[in-house]
Write a structure and sequence with these properties.
Low-confidence stretches: 57-62, 322-359, 382-392
Mean pLDDT: 77
Main location: membrane
Keywords: Cell membrane, G-protein coupled receptor, Glycoprotein, Lysosome, Membrane, Receptor, Transducer, Transmembrane, Transmembrane helix
Number of strands: 0
Shape: elongated
GO molecular function: dopamine binding; L-DOPA binding; L-DOPA receptor activity; L-tyrosine binding
Structural class: mainly alpha
Protein name: G-protein coupled receptor 143
Subcellular location: Apical cell membrane; Lysosome membrane; Melanosome membrane
Number of helices: 15
Length: about 400
Amino acid sequence: MASPRLETYCCPNRDAATQLVVNFQPEVFCGVCIGSASVGLLLTILQLLPKKGQTPRKLLKASSSSTILLLISICDILGGLGIIFRSSIWLGFPGFIANISVVNGTDVWPSAFCVGSAMWIQLLYSAGFWWLFCYAVDSYLVIRRSAGLSTIVLYHMMTWGLAVLLCVEGIALLYYPSLSSCENGLEHAIPHYVTTYVPLLLVLVVNPILFRRTVSAVASLLKGRQGIYTENERRLGTEIQIRFFKIMLVFIICWSSNIINESLLFYLEMQPDINDTPLKNIRSAALITWIIMGVLNPMQGFLFTLAFYGWTGCRVDLKWRKSEIPWESLSSSTVGENAYPSPVNYQTSVHDPKKISSTDSQQTDEAISMLSEGNTSSDERLTRSSPIYQGW
């Protein structure tokens, strides 16, 4: 699981709240993390592999959104591998991890492993948060016809740049001036927690707003395409709205326990003695949410693939066929023309109002296809309702 408490645990003089949760049944907790991360990792890879009998998804043009969805899954997979590795070392070599608690110890490897593994997990999950934010931004820009594959470079710069910057800055502030004095005051810990939870809270607050505006823009485009709002178009808009809802639901399910747990632990830190009897229920709630985090955080990757693509099945096709990769889109204009012949001749029909209208409608279909990719029924209904299908 991903929590700033794991970096705090690397401090020999860690606070009492961190000591409480990290030392609570460590064998059970590490086993839960390994089991959940392993299951989530295998199911995520199974979801992404090409399947036998799967109909290749033919998109009208390459989509940055499909690339972002793949990168989110990759971040979750690599983060899950980090959780498995760290928990396996903690479970298999308890004496090695116990050396972290020795102040001024001569063996630096336990602390180096603790800091390095915690930074790896935090960096990848933070990058996943930023990519999810970029997906919401890209969805809105795509429907406004202001995005494309060229914008993916900007998303890479923003995502990895901010993820690395916030992670390094938070760790540097936490461990300043040395690892042995990183928990001498909240002025060390609070900046670290802020840099960790900023991208998470950004997704929770901003993504629903962007998704709502995108859905409204989709409805306007569908209405303006032919001047009417048919049942098929209404279903398309509803399915895109449901897809966004599933994405946010998965995110809330997987990370709300982190926010609750951190709030409880901060409250305990502010108390003179966290072992007081009146605080028993709060301690129990903190420990319960700590275990829940170990279960839900590593499962995010698999749950996201369900929200993105639905259940793709178990019949894996070991023969690699590029056209059947779930996240692949047609990148060359030649292939795109073969898949969806364009009825418009830009050189000879520039002044034809019907063909210009067909071009605009085709661009609308492309934008809707990017948002509904992975949903076969949506793609079929979109094709049947488009001017291309109707022979405009």
